[in-house]
């Protein structure tokens, strides 16, 4: 049986590039939203003329669509993910460009009829509106407020919830940029961590759950969490997911 130190070392050693979560098989589980974001992309992307995927990560989700539109572009901010995304999206002939999460999008105005984004770090609603054609659609699965807060609070103590990710704030920001919100859904999804290595890798990969996380800084709390899971089984938290669809009005 692996010791606490062995598990810490294992969780620290797993590469964090891309958004491939297959390493977690058997070690952590997350319930999936009922709307099936990848299925929605598979239905809509091939029917569009020009598609932009913002903050694509390693392109893993976009790569699952069955066929590409005439124009397919993705952006990513983290350099190690750029080459991964280019490899994953080569089959679709996609162009992958570097763009900061909060930066202006490096594309002409009214260029895309479909803009998508899965789990964006931040959303520049003004830029989404600008690059969409009149009548074009923005479709996004976003991380809602207080997602996995049980894990955040266990390690850091009770923390305030960031209201910028709430449904009402999201809708308000989209509408303020001139978009019409036509669909908004929210689901709380059960997430289980089965060992401390899974927790460590998750916190290294999803860096906003415990900002500035390192094993050394949180060793005592990780030890307490390891002991909890040894005695009581998986640690349960809840992911908050939003699906938002918005359209740029026709001129």
Counted by DSSP, the helix tally is 8
Using DSSP, what is the number of strands?
8
**Uncertain residue segments:** none
Gyration radius (Cα, Å) is: 19 Å
Mean pLDDT: 96
Please identify the structural class as seen in this structure: alpha/beta
Name of the CATH superfamily: Vaccinia Virus protein VP39
Percent in helix: 25-40%
Which strand order does the major sheet show?
1-7-8-6-5-2-3-4
Shape: globular
- Ends apart, CA distance between termini: 65 Å
Number of domains: 1
Run of helices and strands: HEHEEHEEHEHHEHHE
- As an assembly, this protein is single chain
CATH topology type? Rossmann fold
Name given to the CATH architecture: 3-Layer(aba) Sandwich
Q: How much β-strand is present in the residues?
A: 25-35%
Which CATH class? Alpha Beta
Quick synopsis:
It is an enzyme of class 2 (transferase). 31% of the residues lie in helices and 25% in strands. The relative contact order is 0.19.
Descriptive terms for the model:
251 residues, 25% strand, Rossmann fold, 31% helix
Task: Describe it.
This protein has 251 residues and is of the alpha/beta class. It has one domain (4-247): 3-Layer(aba) Sandwich (Rossmann fold). Helix content is 31%, strand content 25%. The chain has eight helices and eight strands; from the N terminus they run H-E-H-E-E-H-E-E-H-E-H-H-E-H-H-E. It has helices spanning 4-13, 37-44, 79-89, 125-131, 149-156, 167-176, 196-205, 219-232, and strands spanning 28-30, 50-53, 71-76, 95-98, 112-118, 132-143, 180-193, 235-247. Strands 1-7-8-6-5-2-3-4 form an eight-stranded mixed β-sheet, with helices on both faces. Helix 4 (125-131) links the parallel strand 5 (112-118) and strand 6 (132-143). Helix 1 (4-13) packs parallel to helix 7. The chain is globular. One of its GO terms (biological process) is methylation. One of its GO terms (molecular function) is methyltransferase activity. Its EC number is 2.1.1.-. This is Class I SAM-dependent methyltransferase.
